[in-house]
Automatic annotation (TrEMBL):
<dbReference type="Pfam" id="PF09084">
    <property type="entry name" value="NMT1"/>
</dbReference>
<dbReference type="InterPro" id="IPR015168">
    <property type="entry name" value="SsuA/THI5"/>
</dbReference>
<dbReference type="InterPro" id="IPR027939">
    <property type="entry name" value="NMT1/THI5"/>
</dbReference>
<protein>
    <submittedName>
        <fullName>ABC transporter substrate-binding protein</fullName>
    </submittedName>
</protein>
<feature type="domain" description="SsuA/THI5-like">
    <location>
        <begin position="43"/>
        <end position="257"/>
    </location>
</feature>
Amino acid sequence: MKRILIFMISVLLIGMIAGCSNEKKADGNKQQDVTIMLDWYPNAVHSALYVAKEKGYFKDEGINLKIEMPADTNDPLKMAAVGKIDLAISYQKQVLLSRSEDIPVVSIGSYVQHPLDALIYNKSKGITRPKDLEGKKVGYASSPTSEPIIKTIVEHDGGDMSKVKMVDVGFDLIPALATGKVDALEGAYINHEYLLLQKEGVNVGKLSLEKNGVPDSSELVFVTGEKTLKTEKDTLLKFMKALTKGQDDVKKDPKSALNVLLEHENKNFKLDKKVETESLNILLPLMGDKTTPFGQQNPNQWKNAADWMYKTKITPKKVNYKDAFVNLNQ
């Protein structure tokens, strides 16, 4: 996540462009164009989107879904805020951070209901618990949440954060740990970097953040702008309905779903079928269960995340978490 000032300027520029664009119109078959921007390049977590589109579930709901990739990982939420796109896949913490700066975005559904982020470390460095990070170097990807996360887990375990060295490695998380530049990573995912490091032969371990003082939260959510929510609520509800059908199919037949996804891989970001298979196996239990169905958002997660972000000074003011999300499927 970039600095708020850059974020605000980007929102204003995109808003100017959006203001000049024409309103969407349904075609002769009453199909309404809906654009969703991914959080990253297509990978296992996006399987339900591509399955639902291929099987015509969106068309059944009168939606002509367009799936776009971001040029920058900060683009999706910014563009949703000003109505340049209808939906974005983004992060729960980013939604709260944005709302603390009066960026008008709302989450309409959870995609991954629990964290994928974990403390990933090189086992040869003698790390078995957060306190062991004292005297170690922790790499992170230029995120304002990383240091508060490490501070939380270290102090929760009785450690001294002043003895931990944080190293901004940008997006080079994997090489930073693999080459020994850092001893551990914050911001690396258990379904991606962890698997790729194992593939490279690095002896890695992982520690859960939510079991060490950081509140449980949804990793990925579907985000729209407040104005879009008001004017297109029925369409957004239909989107969630179609997507849920796609997710049901993914759960029933992950292998076939992954084959659909692989047909849509980005040529610049080739996928490893074995890694994506393992990734999907990790993801599915985190995307909904009998207690919290797919898409459903937990109010306590939002409250606890908002409280923690304010307490750790990630957000400059306390966010009214009730305004940050809505469960359309209720």
